[in-house]
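Side project, low priority. Logging it here so it doesn't get lost.
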Amino acid sequence: MVKNMTTKLILGNIITLDDIKPNVEALVVEEGIIKYIGSRKTAETLCDEDTEILDFGDNCIYPGFIEAHAHGCEAGRALGLIPPLYEGETMDDYVAIMKKVIEENPDKELYRGIGWHIIDKEPTAAMLDEICSDKPISLVSGDGHSTWLNTKAMEEFGVDKSMVEKYGADCCRVDEDGNPTGWLSEGPNYEVQSKTPLTIEEAKESILLWQQYCFANGYVAAFDAGIDVYSENPIYAYPQLEEEGKLKLRTFAGIIIPDNIEDVDSKIKEIADYASKYNKEYFKITTSKVFLDGVIEVDTGLLLEEYNHKPEYYGVERFSNHDKFVEVVCKSGDYGLNVHCHSDGDGAVEFALNGFAKAIAAGYTDQRNLLAHLHLVKPYHFEQFADYNVTSVTPPLWVPLVDVTAKREIETIGAERMHAGYPINSFIKAGANNVFHTDFPVSPVMNVGMSIFIAVTRYAPHNYGVEPMGPESTKGPEEAITRMQALEALTKNVAYAYHQEDIMGTLSVGKIANMVVFKENFLEDDLEEIAAAETLYTIVDGEIVYQK
């Protein structure tokens, strides 16, 4: 993309997050790079009659926010390419939504949906057969770890007893006769979803929808956590969009390492070859993405203590070969890649930290590996994050207690563990680098103000979208953090995690002129106002890419 050569003078209440000049009134941009931050008077001496002035008055200007873990193509699908199911409040609601979709689209050969959660009963193929029995229905759960199929889809995608034998009944649920019921999680989920078509053009359309959604919410960069989770076509779609001058969202990408992979060296070399071929300015393959477990809400998160409702059951250990995992970490380091792990349960966290410790002992000391989600964490893990320089990727949007999901958590892990869920402050107190993520579209919103509100209060604001149980039922109030810590978790800490601290994360001289404008001062204004804040402008390389 050709950058605008015009010098710009940007004025406003500029909160830089720069340690030396944390709050200034002006900055000067040349060729997309910040050349000066400081007083308006001095900035004006660096300008001439051709300088473009962007005066945002009393509005606040922040460094552009960075999403630490999301899914670009799936985001685009959820934003309009696949019918969303998020508004359902019962399993029957989801069926009713899909019934309407089918009635309005009678010519489709495959019906898709995204965003369901287990609520009042488990999903079965029979429930979907009632609305459509002659065409396949494939519905991805809100967390992305499960698929709900009708009988026709099971037939088409080979879901039978052989799949149960391959993955086990913990991931391919069965009835009393041992036949699949239509609810798949983890391995079979990803196998089935990889069989649904995603062309390069569809991937590009999804990415552009995702990009505009990021800009509208103040994000200028994002980590795409496993771009090939369902198809390898996004690996080619991103660089094509950059070549076409359409990709402006700086994207750091992770490529999936198959569970318990045998030939680690070949796979890591393949990732490095992709990076060598496709990495440019706006798209960079940086990461080996590993799934260590599933998610607690569907009984596949890996725990150190048994599930309450399943004695002697500890969840799904997707990557169980410790030596192979250490090899993944070390080989990734050899090629300049970090390792980003899905780790929902404390069993997965412990597995990963033990592996990282061995890699550090072998000399891999600045890989800046990451563990994401961190639903449950043991107290002794926090210092290990700091000692091993592992970034904690935490989800403030998942903290509030909501009636339906809280009931499910109490059933699976009990009230004590539920209330200890999703810590944040403990990582920071231990000295770890902490960042925020939404995992969009797992979180159906990306909202900076809402994330700050929840991180500071540990309960949901009025605009949360789902009725929370209230501040008296908050998860771990001792895990609340300061507003400044929340801002840092959305900006400079993410830049550090991906080795980008020299070019983004703060508004400092020499860094890219990526910034976002809000009316609200996130460090001072009323928290409910902050939760409802809307992006006024998003600026990338000194150019306005979004205006409210």
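Brief comment: The mean pLDDT is 94.
Revisit when time allows.
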